[in-house]
Write a structure and sequence with these properties.
Layout: H1 3-10, H2 14-17, H3 21-33, E1 38-40, E2 45-47, H4 51-84, E3 97-104, E4 107-114, H5 116-129, H6 136-145, H7 158-166, H8 175-183, E5 187-188, E6 199-205, E7 227-235, H9 240-255, E8 271-273, E9 280-283, E10 293-296, H10 297-300, H11 315-331, E11 338-341, H12 346-369, H13 375-403, E12 404-407, H14 412-421, H15 427-437, E13 438-443, E14 448-452
Helix pairs in contact: 3-4, 12-13
Length: about 450
């Protein structure tokens, strides 16, 4: 090592050393092995390869690491405290918002401000996504075909669009949104009574809750375990009912991996193998063979995943069984009264809050019951749980009565047309009806189970 480099090391001032004592003492230890030592005459510190010098270097390294971790913890705790108070967390606002300023608790902070043009497009995207047959892919194609650009001026893709639709910053959050986010595993910083059907939400991850090997943005807004939700000062863009309907559709799409785009059957995307749970697809019919063969994703991966079926089951056999059940299901709704969904009112929001309180009360009573052995006390608590359940049932009934308005309508003519015209429908027309009524068709060796999305109408 040149003399000039050693001189630069020796003239370090201790106030600068304190910023990176760990690195400095490590360097001094390496230099000591080469016969170059550090000595501070004022502080009486000597770092060399003697036992005392080695101990002093190690002590300084320990305290440097302690100070580094203490500073990091103070910074992250301050971030956490600011987030709980509803203050801006930094970063670029999502599409639909610009950055503005506001006061939170008497302190000036940045916030989201609605961008009129972008927010109108986001509201249209939410509404369009709920239309029959719309997917993230079709929305992306529509956005790019109409030359709509992202906030950075680029083209749209499905992953960022899915995250935007999941982002609770857009919703005018109410008690139902609170319960949905909490059910996803998020920790709620504000009480449910604060969800006033006006403000959007901040979603963030406290650094201490993230495992070291896990990136904090993995599965963003999909799995909210370890995430925190705080009411934000800005107003949301879309109504809570619309936002929740979009979340439920995204949840269903994530659970159903098969796109259902197959052209062979009106049951494409609905058939599952009971043995392995993978989607069933249709195999092209060989020449001279009657009926289409089926195969599942598990069997394609090998017999260890799914051994397949012990007897041949064709697509035509599955469709025949499903058709009979589907038409019987539709016939049960001939004279059923239609329920149209109403906008969530303040009264509905208050009922959601009361329902949440009753559910927490029941949960606490059930938890208390597990620690009690006296029969008399058990009977008292059991009676309290029964009464709370009755109140909960009554509250849910009142909520449903406010959420849905019954419009008397005789559907016999409509369903009679469906039942009559069914054989003449195209595969695509049948597929739309099947997806509206059927949740899943499970195929086993000798059974075909059909799970409908609702109970029979009559």
């Amino acid at each position: 090592m040149e003399a000039g480099q050693v001189e630069k090391i020796l003239v370090y001032r201790l106030d600068r050393i304190s910023r990176s004592v760990h690195d400095f003492t490590g360097l001094c230890t390496r230099l000591s092995a080469r016969g170059v030592h550090f000595q501070s005459v004022t502080e009486g510190i000597t770092l060399d390869n003697t036992p005392s010098g080695t101990v002093m270097a190690q002590i300084m390294m320990v305290f440097a690491q302690f100070e580094r971790e203490t500073i990091q913890r103070r910074v992250t705790d301050n971030y956490f405290a600011r987030a709980k108070a509803g203050m801006y967390l930094g970063g670029r606002p999502p599409f639909g918002f610009d950055k503005g300023e506001t006061l939170v608790g008497g302190k000036r902070t940045a916030c989201y401000v609605i961008n009129p043009q972008q927010s109108a497009l986001m509201a249209a995207i939410y509404a369009r996504y709920l239309q029959d047959g719309e997917t993230l892919g079709s929305l992306v194609r529509w956005l790019n075909a109409n030359r709509h650009r992202t906030a950075r001026g680029g083209s749209w893709s499905t992953l960022p669009l899915g995250r935007l639709l999941r982002n609770p910053a857009f919703v005018r959050a109410d008690a139902a949104v609170y319960r949905y986010l909490q059910g996803k595993g998020a920790a709620m910083n504000d009480p449910i009574a604060a969800y006033d059907q006006r403000h959007g939400c901040y979603c963030y991850t406290h650094f201490h809750s993230v495992p070291p090997a896990q990136h904090p943005t993995r599965r963003k807004f999909t799995d909210l375990s370890g995430n925190f939700i705080t009411l934000a000062p800005h107003e949301g863009i879309v109504d809570a009912a619309l936002w929740l309907d979009v979340q439920h559709k995204l949840d269903r799409n994530r659970a159903l991996k098969n796109s259902g785009a197959g052209s062979h059957s009106w049951l494409s995307g609905l058939m599952k193998c009971k043995k392995c749970g993978y989607a069933i697809t249709v195999v092209n019919k060989p020449a001279g063979i009657r009926g289409h063969y089926i195969n599942c994703g598990g069997h394609k991966r090998g017999n260890a995943v799914c051994p397949g079926r012990s007897q041949v089951i064709t697509l035509e056999m599955i469709e025949c069984a499903a058709e009979a059940k589907l038409l019987d299901f539709l016939a049960s709704y001939r004279a059923v009264q239609i329920q149209s969904r109403q906008r969530r009112s303040a009264q509905v929001n208050q009922l959601e809050i009361e329902i949440d309180d009753r559910e927490k009360e029941i949960g606490q009573l059930q938890q208390n019951l597990t620690h009690i052995l006296e029969p008399d006390v058990i009977h008292i608590i059991a009676a309290q749980i029964h009464e709370a359940n009755e109140r909960l049932t009554a509250l849910k009934a009142r909520r449903e009565a406010l959420l849905y308005e019954v419009k008397p309508a005789n559907l016999e003519q409509y369903f009679e047309a469906v039942l009559t015209e069914w054989p003449r429908y195209t595969i695509e027309e049948k597929k739309r009806i099947a997806k509206a009524a059927i949740a899943r068709v499970t195929v086993d060796d000798d059974t075909i189970e059909i799970l409908f999305r609702a109970a029979y109408g009559a």
